[in-house]
Design brief:
TransReg_Diox_bact_type, 434 Repressor (Amino-terminal Domain), about 0% strand, 7 helices, globular, mainly alpha
Amino acid sequence: MSKASANASPRLVFARNLRRARRLQDLSQEALALQAGLSRTYVSEVERGMRNISIDNMGLLAQALGVPLGDLLDLDMLKRLATR
């Protein structure tokens, strides 16, 4: 784990991983929001790290993407996804 990733806040880790997972599935923010029952604006704010997201909404987004919530909080997820 790099020094920069060790200092990343959980909110920013989640934001980066959420955006990456969504893009890998070729989903728009609007499509993800619809599947999760949230607004597109909310998803956008979460992906930019501007929103202090609740654990319940984290679960909704993970479920909508079909990925374990733990993966969206994993500092090294981006590296693993990039090598697929």
